[in-house]
Specification:
8 strands; 8-stranded mixed beta sheet
């Protein structure tokens, strides 16, 4: 693997870029304070912008770690963040990572999450050299599974009570993509 850090990625409509503390108000207004966004997440809605700012300071420090890749999803038209997406290496020796994302409610259903996920999966598999990237979604949140499918991931099964969200333990669909899947698709 080649740990090259979180570099900007451009797609047709989006710029995926590092978060900065200056983005705290936009992030708070657009998704970190929204219970609809955090419903299937492990975090509760932020109580104030200071909580979001603290998270972004943590991410800024993590950009120095080779196994953390966090991006803000921003529309090219204004470069203001509408969500976040990350690849976290879970088993570096196995070249295994997990994909996670969230998007502000106003931006759901417009293809932004799948567009960002496709770009980040390519980056992780081809540029960083990760072999396998997995993602889980709560079965009660089938839209997230649709994002994974649209991004090129393959459903592999179900994990009972895989993680504890704000609402409780979630049964989850498991999706994954391996480097060979992507290379076959490029031929």
């Amino acid at each position: 693997m080649r740990h090259i850090g979180t570099r900007p990625i451009e797609t047709e409509r989006l710029t995926l870029r590092r978060a900065t503390v200056d983005d705290a108000q936009d992030a708070y207004d657009r998704w970190t304070s929204d219970p609809r966004v955090s419903r299937f997440m492990r975090w509760t809605p932020h109580k104030d912008v200071a909580e979001t700012r603290e998270l972004l300071q943590k991410w800024a420090a993590e950009y120095e770690q080779p196994d953390r890749y966090h991006w803000f999803i921003a529309r090219k038209e204004d470069d203001r963040p509408i969500g976040s997406i990350a690849i976290i290496l879970t088993l570096p020796g196995d070249e295994l990572a997990e994909l996670g994302y969230c998007l502000g409610h106003a931006y759901w259903g417009q293809g932004y999450a799948a567009e960002a996920a496709r770009a980040v999966l390519r980056y992780g598999l081809l540029d960083v050299g990760i072999n396998r990237i997995e993602a889980y979604h709560a079965l009660a949140n089938p839209a997230s599974g649709a994002v994974m499918r649209k991004a090129g991931m393959i459903r592999e099964g179900m994990a009972r009570q895989k993680y504890k969200s704000v609402a409780g333990f979630e049964d989850c669909g498991l999706y994954a993509i391996i480097r060979d899947d992507l290379l076959k698709g490029d031929k």
